[in-house]
Every structure is written in C-alpha cells, then in structure tokens.
Design goal:
Layout: E1 2-6, H1 15-23, E2 33-38, H2 40-49, E3 58-62, H3 73-79, H4 84-91, H5 94-97, E4 104-107, H6 111-121, E5 132-137, E6 144-147, H7 157-173, E7 182-185, H8 196-207, E8 213-217, E9 229-231, H9 234-262, H10 264-280, H11 283-286, E10 288-292, E11 297-301, H12 307-322, H13 325-335
Parallel strand pairs: 1-2, 1-4, 2-3, 4-11, 6-9, 7-8, 7-9
Antiparallel strand pairs: 5-6, 5-10, 10-11
Helix pairs in contact: 1-12, 3-6, 4-6, 7-8, 7-13, 9-10
C-alpha cells in the first residue's frame, strides 16, 4: 500500500508531522510505501536523523509551496500548484498519478483545501453525490460516528441520506458495530421539528426500511447511546466536534484541579484512572477522519495534530484499506439506491 503524507500541513508542521510519519515505520510492512510530501531538505534531514534514509519504504515528493491554514481553499489550490496539498491530491488519483498512485492521502492542513483537492483529483465513488467527513466521538455507551463535520456546510437532503448509509458502513466495518442505529441531528426528538433540510432527511431515512433508523437525535443524546451514527450538515457537525473536544478537555482539567486541592495523595492515586479515561476520549488516539465518498481514501487530521496523531492516522488508513470500506460503500449505496428516490441531488 502507498500512503501520501502532507508533511507541511498543520499547526505543528513540519516537525511533528514528519516525526509521526517516521514513527510509523513499525507499522509499515515491506510492501508499504509512505510518500513524504513537502520541503525536500527538511524531509531528507529527518530521515537521516531517524536512520531511515536508506529505507525504501520512505519516498520523498518535493514541493516548494505551502497552503496555510487561513488561505481560501479553492484560491490557494490555483495559486499554489506546487503545494503539498495539491501534490497530495494528485497522488491520490489513480487516473492522474497512475504508477505513482497512493491508495491513501493524509493531511492535517487546511481542511477546505484538502477536501477540494481530493474532490478535484480523486473525484467521487460511483453513486456518491457529495463526500462528507466522518469523525468518531467516544462516549460511555460506545463510539458514535458523526457525518458531516466540515466538508459540506450546505447539503441537500439526499446528501445527508447518503451520509447515513456511508457512515453506517464505516461504523460496521471499522468499529465493528453490527446493524448501527442511525439518527438525524435535530433540535428535538419529534418528527415535526427542525428545518426543511432536517425534516426531509428524516423522511428519507424513515422510509428506508433497510436502515436501522433511530429518529431525530438532540445534542445531549449524542452521548446516551440513542444512535451509533448521527448525520448533520457540515457547519453544525464542526461546531459539535469542537464543542465536544473543548468540553472534554475542560472536564478533565477541572477533575484534576479539584482532586489536587482536596487531597494531593488522593490526586496521585486517582491520576492513573484519569489518564486511562482521557486516553479513550483523546482525538489524537483516533488519528484522522475519512472523507467518506471520495474515490480513494482521504484522511483528514486535526489541525493541532501531534506526531502520535499522524502515526495513528497511518494505522487507521491501513485498516480502512484492508477492510475494503469503499467497496462496501459502493455496494451499500447501490442497495439503498443511493438516495435517488429524493430526486434532489
């Protein structure tokens, strides 16, 4: 398997990203290749320091430009053709890259630019209307897949309906959740509530008897086990994601501080428990979020990714590829008619 890594994308690039890629040496087989995209001198020096400069599993793809986190995605793709994100997207296209094709591309850079590059170069899987980013939220009742969290802020009902199918496949194949319960993010549980987009999406999901439809899901119900998969438009999904991250970090900080103020010995005894729980809720452990529906695998990592985030993203990319998730998505969309019954693509 060939995996392309954007070394220059992310708040901690290039050092943390490169380190994460090099640390993946332990999970790469002899048949794997990790294509490191970015400043050639920086990458070459990193390989030398890690003692991997003669390791054929690591390949350098030199670029001279960087798309910054604040750049306008489409404008930046056109203005910076020799950027790491543009080259990454090109390598992800079997049609364009041919013998240089990478089965997975990974970046912690500008999300909008990553999504645009993937869609322009890799295109979409057969039957897919719009790709969506799927993230995993850890909860007391098990992981919950939320789609979309930023790729498609102004979707149509048919897009969200397809997310319910694609995210359901992801939950079943990667997370091992059999016949996942699917819900639609809404401001209330009643079917009559919500925007026209939400109401129509709910109708499409409800009328599909092959979906294990759980109904509307309020924000608080994300964490109580009502659904294993929750679909929403990219704007709301992104807000939910970042709210959950901030709340999780704040709760653990508060617990630690309160325990230390009450009894330092208690805090020291409690520390292993807090660390264990935090690890289960730490997005760095989950690596990246797949862009479901892309014709290939585009793994989008958090902008503040650390080395271990990238290493875990590479592990997840290999798993996604080996489980043939995209083949399962194509098959599932064909079985569900891909949302065509809505007539709204």
């Amino acid at each position: 398997m060939r995996i392309a890594l954007d070394v220059m994308g992310g708040d901690n690039a290039p050092d943390a990203i490169l380190d994460g890629g090099l640390n993946a040496a332990e999970v790469l087989s002899d048949d794997d290749q990790l294509v490191l995209i970015g400043d050639e001198e920086i990458i070459r020096e990193g390989l030398r320091e890690a003692g991997l400069h003669n390791d054929s599993r690591f390949v350098i793809e030199a670029t001279t430009q960087v798309i910054e986190m604040g750049d306008s995605p489409v404008t930046a793709l056109r203005a910076k053709p020799d950027s790491s994100i543009v080259k990454m997207g090109w390598l992800g296209s079997a049609k364009k890259a041919k013998d240089q094709h990478c089965q997975a591309i990974i970046s912690a850079g500008n999300t909008g630019a990553c999504v645009a590059a993937a869609q322009m170069s890799m295109r979409r899987l057969p039957g897919v209307h719009r790709p969506g980013i799927a993230i995993v939220l850890p909860t007391f009742h098990g992981p919950v897949v939320v789609c979309d969290v930023g790729a498609n802020p102004e979707p149509k009902p048919s897009h969200l309906y397809q997310y319910s199918i694609m995210a359901g496949v992801y939950a079943e194949k990667v997370l091992g959740i059999e016949n996942p319960k699917v819900g639609v993010m809404n401001i209330g549980g009643e079917e009559g509530k919500g925007t026209p987009l939400v109401k129509e999406t709910s109708r499409l999901c409800r009328e599909d008897e092959t979906l294990n439809y759980a109904g509307n899901v309020e924000g608080r119900e994300l964490f109580n086990g009502k659904a294993n998969v929750v679909v929403t438009e990219g704007f709301t999904g992104n807000v939910v994601l970042k709210l959950a991250e901030g709340l999780s970090a704040g709760i653990f900080q508060t617990i630690t501080r309160e325990a230390m103020e009450i009894d330092m010995d208690l805090a020291m005894r409690f520390e292993p428990v807090v660390k264990s729980i935090y690890k289960k809720h730490d997005y760095h452990e989950y690596g990246g979020a797949p862009l479901l529906g892309a014709n290939g695998l585009c793994m989008i990592c958090h902008g503040s990714s650390e080395a271990r985030t990238i290493t875990n993203a590479i592990k997840k990319a290999k798993m996604y590829h080996e489980l043939k998730v995209n083949d399962a998505i194509i098959e599932a969309l064909a079985e569900h008619e891909g949302g065509e019954k809505s007539g709204d693509q």
